[in-house]
Write a structure and sequence with these properties.
Helix content is about 25%, strand content about 30%. By secondary structure, the protein is an alpha+beta fold. Strands 1, 2, 3, 4, 5, 6, 7, 8 and 18 form a nine-stranded mixed β-sheet that branches. Strand 15 and strand 16 form a beta hairpin. Helix 2 crosses helix 3. The mean pLDDT is about 95. The protein binds pyridoxal-5'-phosphate.
């Protein structure tokens, strides 16, 4: 894959680290590659970041044929650019694409594109503690045709966004509403794919939770409406007595890369982790008996988000007196220290951009 580079002639002003939120500021360039079913992926280029022009009839606008990924690059104190498990993201993109009848990508080509783009945008990587360069690859179906079928043509982009510290005021446990009306995913559906449509379907639940003074929503399984599945767009973990539980990947859970990393890390620390379906009733009972120790959610954006309280109908399920627990703290510190290079990386999670 040969990448043409068209550099921007008017570079933007950088935004101060302290003013960065999430996903609001974008760098000067983006990667773009096109796909046609007759010729595969072609025309790889790095171009100035800017608006996209598409046919109003493009499949993505009408039938939601879109997938995406989210990962981060970090700058170490010595100036290294470090990516956290980037190949896992492109592997997952390929699985998502297969589910949505979209073409798969060559992972080595994507790594080459990503590294070249980030090198060009190196000066955009923030260095203050807790900050990073968020990377958003996405694929859209661009056929100008209103018939319902998988598109023949696609565009893949990678855009970059410097993001601020998720935890400006420390890791404050959140309050989560258990969703009783709507579901996120059903076996056989698209819940295991990172597809925009899943997010569209979850917005009403999140809005409802926020209207009730909660930060996020905990989704239950779609069939029995008993088993806990995911917390917003993060994977869920529950520590009961001395065991950490997380729902198994049985077709409704998004296989989070942070989730897999947390499982590996806890096992290496000899903390028991079990992939098992848990009902909300069991979690409630555990809170009554005092055996519910911690609840947390995992994902790229925040790494880990401690949960202080679940609201389930009229019941309140409190974990660890609404304070961050020792397991959540340990995971947060270990993973972020590996990401930025403060400690060794015994798991080989990091890919350094030379
Ligand atoms: C992206 C995502 C996650 C977290 O995945 P990571 O790879 O850890 O960022 C969890 N659940 C859903 C629904 C997601 O879209």
């Amino acid at each position: 894959m040969n990448i043409k580079v068209n550099k921007s002639k008017n570079l933007k002003e950088k935004v101060k680290s302290s003013q960065l939120g999430f996903g609001q500021v974008f760098t000067d360039h983006m990667f773009k590659i096109k796909y046609h079913s007759d010729k595969g992926w072609y025309n790889a280029e790095i171009i100035p970041y800017g608006d996209i022009s598409l046919s109003p009839a493009a499949t993505v606008f009408h039938y939601g044929q879109e997938t995406f990924e989210g990962l981060k690059a970090y700058k170490s104190k010595s100036g290294q650019i470090r990516l956290f498990r980037p190949r896992e993201n492109f592997k997952r993109l390929n699985k998502s694409n297969q589910r949505l009848c979209m073409p798969t990508v060559n992972i080595d080509d994507m790594m080459k594109a990503l590294k070249q783009l980030i090198k060009l945008e190196e000066s955009w990587i923030p260095t203050e503690e807790g900050t990073s360069l968020y990377i958003r690859p996405f694929v859209i179906a661009t056929n100008p045709y209103l018939g319902v079928k998988a598109s023949d043509i696609y565009e893949l982009y990678i855009i970059l966004s410097p993001v601020g510290s998720y935890y400006k005021t420390g890791l404050t446990p959140t309050k989560i509403l258990v969703e009783e009306n709507f579901v996120r995913a059903v076996k056989g559906g698209t819940g295991t794919a990172k597809a925009g449509g899943n997010y569209a379907a979850s917005l009403q639940s999140i809005k409802n939770a926020q209207d009730k003074g909660c930060n996020q929503v905990l989704f239950l399984d779609a069939i029995e409406r008993r088993y806990v599945e995911e917390i917003g767009t993060s994977n869920a973990f529950f520590k009961i007595d001395e065991v950490v539980y997380t729902p198994p990947l049985t077709g409704t859970i998004l296989p989070g890369i942070t989730r897999a990393s947390v499982i590996e890390l806890l096992k290496s620390k000899k903390i028991e982790v079990v992939e098992k379906r848990l009902t909300i009733e069991e979690i409630y009972q555990a809170s009554l008996s005092g055996s519910l120790k911690e609840i947390f959610a995992t994902g790229t954006a925040a790494v880990i988000s401690p949960i202080g309280e679940l609201i389930w109908n009229d019941k309140s399920i409190v974990a660890n007196d609404r304070l961050i627990g020792p397991i959540s703290q340990l995971i947060y510190e270990q993973i972020t220290d590996i990401q930025v290079g403060n400690i060794d990386d015994p798991f080989n999670w990091i890919e350094i951009i030379e």
